[in-house]
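Q: Here's a chain of 418 amino acids. Please give me its 3D structure as C-alpha cells.
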Amino acid sequence: MARLGVLGAGLAGGTATSAVRSWSRGERAAFADHAFSPANARRFVSELSRLRGAALKLGQLVSMDVGAVAPPEFAAVAASLRAGADPMPPAQLRRVLDRRWGKGWLARFERFDPRPAAAASIGQVHRAVTKDGRALAVKIQYPGVKASIDADLDSVAALVRLAGLLPKGFDLDPYLDEARRGLHEEADYVREARNLAAYAAALGVTPDFVAPKVDESLSGPDILALDFLPGAGLESAAEQEPKERERVFLALLDLTLRELFQLGMMQTDPNYANFLYVGPGEPIGLIDFGAVRPVSADLSERFRAVLGAGLAGDDAGMESALAALGVLAPDTGARHRSAVLGLADQVFAPVRAGVFDFTRTSLLTTLRDGGLALQKAGFGPAPPPDLMFIQRKLAGLYLLGAMLGVRLDLRDRLAAWL
C-alpha cells in the first residue's frame, strides 16, 4: 500500500508538472493528455515491476489493451511491463523451497541455478537438472500472490482511475473482473498442469510446435516443474530471412485458428515470451498454459460468421455477426454502428485485396485512432469478457506479423476455416 501511495502521488505530480510546463509554453493540450506522458509511463512500469503479482498483471493488461488507444510514446514505455518483474531475493527463494520441498531439497538435483532465468507477474523460473539427468524449468510462485490478488487489483484499479491513465469513457470494470478471475486461475499451478496436458493432447504431434511434460513429483499448487525447452522469445525470429519469418508467423496463425475453430481452447496471452524460437525449421516451444481458456462451440461459430462476412465484404452479414458477438447491441446508434463496421472493414479489406502487408503501420494507426474516437465519445458497452481475451490474442497475432515484417496472401488460408 505504501508503494502504491508513492506511485499515485508520483503520477499525479507528473501529470500536473507536464501540464504546467506545456501551458507555460502556450500549448493548450487537454489536462488528461498529460497523464500519458513517457515520464508517467516510466513511473507506472518501475513501481508495478517491483510490486509483482496482481498489480503487475493488471498493469500488463492495461498496457496491452490501452496501448491501442494511448499515444505511442506511452504505449512504447508501458510495453516493457510485459518483459517481466523484479525477482525474489535469494533468501526468500530458499524459504519458499524449504517450505514446499523440505530442507535438504538441493540433494534432489544435480544442479539448481539460484538465478532466475525469467521473472513474470505470478512467479519466476529457474533452470535445474535432476539426479537422473532430466533438464527442467521450475516455475516458483511468489509467496503471498494468491492471498493478495483481490486487494491488489482493487488498489491498482483505483490508482489507475485516479491518476487519469485511462481514456475518457474507458470502462475498466470488465477487464478488472476478468483479470481477477484469470489471476486466481493462473495462480493455481495444478490447474495449469491440467491445461498443459489437455492442450497437448488436443494439439497432437505436429512438426511446428512442442510442449513440455510436467514433473509431477516436484510440482504442486505453487511450483510447476516442466521439461526445459531451449530457445528465446519470438523477437529473435525477426533476425531471420523472410521465408523463415513467414514460416514462424504462419505457424502461429494456424495455431490460433485451430484454437478458435477446432481445439475448443485458447492460450489467450500473446506475450512473445510465452513462445520459444530455436532456429530455422525448428518447432516452436509452447511454455505457458496459465491463461488457457475454453472456447465454446457457439462462440467459435459466431467468430466463423464474422470471418465469413469479412472475407465476403458482406456489410449486413458483418453487422449481424458483430451483434451476435455482443459488440453491437439492439439499441446501438447508427453512428456507432457505422464506425464499428468501418473499423471491421479496415481489417478485412486488405485481406480481400490479396497480399496483407503487416508492416503497413497506417492500419494500426487507423484502428488505434478509431478506437480512441469511440472511447472518447463514450459509445457502446465494453466487449463481452470471452471476446476481450480472444480479441487480445488476435491483436497480439497482428503485432507479431508487424514485428516479423511479413507480407502474405492470407485469404485462402482463412477461407479454409469457413
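Q: Can you summarize the key feature?
A: The chain has a mean pLDDT of 81.
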